Structure formats: C-alpha cells, structure tokens
Amino acid sequence: MNDTTVNIYDNQAYLISIIDLLNKTISQFGLGLIMFMGNIGSVLTCIVFYQPTFHKNPCAMYFLASSFSQFFTFNFSLLTRMIHYGYNIQTLNTSLWYCKTRSYLFYLFIAIPRYNIIFASIDRYFASSRDALRRQWSSSKIAFRLIIGNIFFWCILYIQVIIFYDITTGTCYYQSGAYGMFFSIYISIDSGILPTCLMLVFGLLTLNNVHQTRKRINPGLQPDRTRSIRFGKMSKKDVQFHRMLANQICLFVILNLPNPCYLIYRSSTLYAVKSPLRRTVESFVGNMTYVPIYLGFSLTFANFAISSQIFRQEFIQFIQTKILRRTVASVTRDRIIAVRALRSKDENE
C-alpha cells in the first residue's frame, strides 16, 4: 500500500515537472515570437493608418487606436507573462505593489484594444445603414471622443483590481469571498462573452445592411451591368474596411473563445479542493488560453494586408517613398508601366 502511494506521488511529480517544462518552453519561445511579430505589426499598422489616405476616417481611427494600444499590450502584458511563466521570475507573487500594478495594467491593456475593435464594428454598422441619421454617428469627431472615453472608462473601472488584488498563499490573486465570486463572473463576461457577442451582433447587422444596399440599387439589372455599382453608395475604401473588420472579428472570435471557457470553469471551481497536479494543469491551461489572444493581436497587420488592397498599396508606397527614398511620381510611373505591360501581354495572348 505504501509502495503504491509512493508510486502515485512519483508519477504526479513527474507529470507536474513535464507540464511545468512545457509551460516554460511555450512561454519562452511561443510568446517571444508573438511579441516580436506583434511589435513589428503594431508599428507598421500605425504607420499605414497614419497616412493621408485614411485621415478622418472613423474606422481607420479605431484601427489606429487599437494598434497603438497593442504596442503596450505586447511590451507589458505579454512581456510580464513571459517573464513569469517562461523564466520563473516570481516578483508577481512576492511584491504586493507589483502584483497590484501588473494586474491593473494587464486588464487595462487587454481591454482598450479589444473595445476599439468593437467600436469599429459599431461604426461600420452605422456607416452602412440606409438611415441618414444613423450614418451621422459614423464620424471622426465621435470616434475621437469614444477612443479617449474608452481609455478613461477602463482606467476607472479597473481601479477595483488595485484595491482587491492581494498576495495570498504565495499567489497574486483577487481576494476570496463575495468579491472573488463577483469578479470571477464579471471577468468571464467582460473579457470573453460580451466582446464576442457585440462583435458578432454588429458584424451580422453590418452584413445585413450591405446586403440590403445591394438589393436596393437597381435590382432588375443583370449582374454584368451592375458590377460597377454593386456596392451602391459605398466607396471602395468602405467595402475594404468591411472586409478587414469581418476578418478581424472572425480572428477574434476563434482565438478568444478558449479564454472565457476557462474563466467560467475557474469561477465554478473557485472553492474546490485541488491536488498539486490539478493546480499545475489549470495553471498551464489558463496560461495557454492567453496565448491565442496575444496571437490574434499579433496577426492584425497580416489580416489587414491580406484583406485590403488599399492597405497594401499604402504600405508599399510608404516603403518605396520613405525607406527606399523614391519619389511619389516615380512610384506612380512604375505602376502605370506595370499596368501597360500586363495589358500588352493580354493582347498578345
């Protein structure tokens, strides 16, 4: 009986060491790669949306604000997680001021870029509406106010983290009791369920608006005759913004789904007695549910580059004019030559 018990403990200790090693390896190399990709992507996305082509476009303003705030997400939230899990630096669980500050800024830098994307989805719904009064809500002035208000709102809301987070039994965590139950449920809704629902609802409403616009403009004409006006009053830029946002929402929903599932599980087992192996597994799973969240942020630039021709053109033009020091006239001339070459090739064939 004693030998059996010893073997069970040995097996559990072995599994715990394997899980810890896997958690450490993924945190070091996986999060490190995401941080590298994310920083480059955030800088490039901000540069592209800062170009004159996107000036005063409310959707571009939300994308710019989201990408700018993601820079802090990568260099604080992700970096501190990588240090904690990847390099086993336990300052989070030993310093109370760092515990409170890190937890506060962690939630802050995750919420701000996420809700800027939600504002962009709401803006696309208003911009695609047939109602002129609703379209007025899609404006650069409103976008600027919401971007600033978004920052202040989350800065105030998450003050509760500074108050109620503490180090108990060697772990930086929110206080147990009634508040612990409230916060575990709240963060499950705020970080997972609510953003996902808002993005899906306004994304579907925007698709419905676009579909209604296509049906309303000359419904009796043949497809080949309506090809040039199939998007009605929407400009090419607006259509591409719809596509960029739709892909961003799909990316968000898919990569963010594991985290709220874990948070719901954690809130439901908050007061359960857990073995060391179970605590290790839950710590690993919890850390892994944040990896796809950071991955989704890091893929923002790639998503925009794939989804939008205008975005790609502005990026290429920036590289040619600012990095390679070519003039705008020479870039335009090269484009004309390339188009003529393609046309002549088609004629010869």
TrEMBL record:
Domain called G-protein coupled receptors family 1 profile: residue spans: 41-311
Q: Which Gene3D superfamilies match?
A: Rhodopsin 7-helix transmembrane proteins (1.20.1070.10)
- Provide the GO MF annotations for this entry: G protein-coupled receptor activity
User: So which domain of life are we looking at?
Assistant: Eukaryota
Q: Matching InterPro entries, A to Z?
A: GPCR_Rhodpsn_7TM (IPR017452)
Q: How is this protein annotated for GO cellular component?
A: plasma membrane
Subcellular localization, as worded in the UniProt entry: Membrane
Membrane topology label: Multi-pass membrane protein
The portions of this protein that span the membrane are 29-50, 62-84, 104-122, 142-165, 185-207, 244-265, 285-306
- Cross-referenced PROSITE patterns, in alphabetical order? G_PROTEIN_RECEP_F1_2
Alphabetically list the UniProt keywords.
Answer: G-protein coupled receptor, Membrane, Receptor, Transducer, Transmembrane, Transmembrane helix
SUPFAM superfamilies in the cross-refs: Family A G protein-coupled receptor-like
Annotated protein name in UniProt: G-protein coupled receptors family 1 profile domain-containing protein
| Organism encoding this protein | Adineta steineri
- Give the classification, highest ranks: Eukaryota, Metazoa, Spiralia, Gnathifera, Rotifera
